């Protein structure tokens, strides 16, 4: 400590704000959005209802919902010049990189977003983001398959529209399987907000300078991409595949994780800054994984590896002492894979789910007129020293 400044690296014990959006109890494994339990919402709501709830504070009436859904439908098409920007990316560009670039590019297509007219003037930007992110998200997949992109079909609901854009081909009719769209709906709801996590704190910090909503959300996508955060869902499947290829010896990987200092290996999908008990989302996703794979008749050996790894870790002193439980990313990739989503798009799916939460938190920060985020530091560099000309160095 120096004077009045205390360092709290990673903000482990620092509250950044007061918020009415999401309630977490890490000890009890409780998660509520605006007072509604995640268990209720995941079972009974649509993702757009939850998006409305997070952003506007209450579940919509039938009239508010239809207005919201229709406004989104009217903005699902993306400016064709955005596609030209996208076409410039190499085919192996990571979908999170293209997504954060194109969401940032939206500010260029809607220059009125540069004017800081305050949070109440952003409704159209909010609709554009919710409407266009799914459309943009599918372009990487279509390009990777050498297939033409699909345009949104506005008679479809939000999740079915995304799935249609992802998997429809011009050569045959594509019917969205309701098992698949309802599994996607549940996953998006479970990812929709999570109080002051890394990417949400990023969106708030960028927005605190009164930067526009598109560039704030683009920054959040960048933070989410990190393997310690949303990028973990891709890491989990790659880890499970590696364990399967290595003979399925989960104990060996638990041991490697326990010697992280020397092996540098972490069990992705385990551990959480706040949850020191089971992540309530992981419980729901684990059950949904068994349910969806059975309904789709998918037998994925990686699911049994995940279950074996979870059991091995939960009975190991190292994990018990550190209260490391499976988190939201541990089982989600197994469902995404069963739905046909490619591994390198798992974190894009996380971003699509988290988008309404980012928007709600940004709007709350601006509505509460919070000051620009500007932390201090403790200086540990050189004391004053005279300039030395290069010939004397
Ligand atoms: C998400 O914040 C959110 O809410 C995030 C999120 C959201 O919805 O927005 O919930 C989404 O990001 C979930 C987390 C996904 N990340 C991973 O699965 C990556 C693996 N997990 C870890 O890297 C870690 O657990 C974090 C990043 C999630 C939390 O890190 P912390 O709170 O900074 O904890 P830490 O790194 O200080 O670990 C505490 C101890 C350490 O051991 P010691 O130094 O005390 O001996 O636990 C160990 C760590 O080495 N540890 C692990 C581990 N996670 C922590 N050891 C092995 N495997 C792991 N996964």
TrEMBL record:
Q: In which pathway does it act?
A: Carbohydrate metabolism; tricarboxylic acid cycle; isocitrate from oxaloacetate: step 1/2
Kindly state one GO CC term assigned in the UniProt record. Answer: cytoplasm
Name the NCBIfam families on file.
cit_synth_I, PRK05614.1
Q: Which residues form the active site?
A: 272, 329
| UniProt record similarity statement | Belongs to the citrate synthase family.
**Keywords of the record:** Transferase, Tricarboxylic acid cycle
Which GO biological process entries does UniProt record here? tricarboxylic acid cycle
For molecular function, the Gene Ontology terms on record are: citrate synthase activity
Q: What is this protein called?
A: Citrate synthase
- What's its catalytic activity? oxaloacetate + acetyl-CoA + H2O = citrate + CoA + H(+)
Q: Which organism is it from?
A: Siphonobacter aquaeclarae
The record's listing under Pfam families reads: Citrate_synt
